[in-house]
């Protein structure tokens, strides 16, 4: 991974190379990069935790990813790619600046940078949990620093091309490692699938072992992120054509569901069986959580060589998401917030910004308890603040900047207030639901009743 970063470091001449890969990327590299970024280490670990608790029904969380990917391909990509290429856009806030003006773009840059900072930290945390549960000689702090440093260095050096090409390699390693090493060895240790099923409840083998409100919460957090993710806009702008981008998104959707969705929860189910069968010692499980069950199982069922391979697979997934989030936050701050894109030293500034953000994310990862909770909270913050203005420029010919700003403030502040105050919503709904609905309502009302001559912001 470091070698790829150094390789592209020598080939990057400007920010066009660094952030959008000279706009020459093709469907398979883009598609695998998109799914590697979205699923990554956090969802890999999180899916194992869901499989451990609810079984096959945990797979529904990535069905929302399939819907989001395909909706984006049909609705968003044709409009955004054409505008991006024509106007030389490289980041998500730049598309908002094109449609609304500078103020909306600055607000989007802040929301997006904060969200991706948290998301990067969640990936590093996933790696730390994986390492500390598997290798007793490496503690969590050491694991966070080692993996975080590698991701930060090759991303800061190589830019988006390093990210996309490493993502392709990392996704192949992950899929091969889980399906060809993890599953066979786990089944063998349990005596086969029929023997493993003895330790699983009937509900865990069904797709209905999930509350409808849980699916609603997942849908509100995950589907909209496909319309606002900075990492995704960078790949749309990096695509050789709109057609290539659309096909890449179709590929990504299929790899999310059913491939990764069922593979992840299946390993979590095998971890549940391994715990019930006594393969995972009760003392170790008592010191861990649901998300640590799968790596604990792998530690006990895999021989040393195979354990190294499967750990490489998971670390690949973690790095594939962390690097993309670093690129997103770096672009938000260096290009959109501080406007360094016109500077003679724009490329160096972007690289140093990536390094600084990466160090901050590593620090945050040392203090966060749950991978999946942090990921979904980061998603929710961006969804509540950014979905309304995106739908605004898709639906309306003359979208209102005032409506966009009001919707962004309403959505993000609603989420923050509910989270901080600890308000319990009816039917176990998450704060993202009222946050997103209120932001869309504000956008619609102001857009509908805006004055004829709106003041530019």
Descriptive overview:
The chain is an all-alpha fold. It is 79% helix and 0% strand. The chain has 19 helices and no strands. The longest helix has 51 residues, at 140-190.
How would you concisely characterize the structure shown here?
With 457 residues, this protein is an all-alpha fold. The protein contains 19 helices and no strands. The radius of gyration is 21 Å and the shape is globular.
Number of DSSP helices?
Answer: 19
Cα(first) to Cα(last) distance is 43 Å
Give a quick account of the main beta sheet: strands, pairing sense, barrel closure.
Answer: none
Low-confidence stretches: none
Number of strands: 0
Structural class: mainly alpha
Instruction: Report mean pLDDT, rounded to a whole number.
Output: 83
> What's the helix-strand series?
HHHHHHHHHHHHHHHHHHH
- Overall 3D form: globular
Q: How large, in whole angstroms, is the Cα Rg?
A: 21 Å
Helix proportion range: over 70%
Strand content: under 5%
Please write out the topology.
Layout: H1 2-11, H2 15-20, H3 27-54, H4 60-87, H5 92-99, H6 102-134, H7 140-190, H8 193-197, H9 212-222, H10 225-228, H11 230-238, H12 242-276, H13 282-286, H14 290-301, H15 304-337, H16 346-365, H17 371-395, H18 401-421, H19 432-449
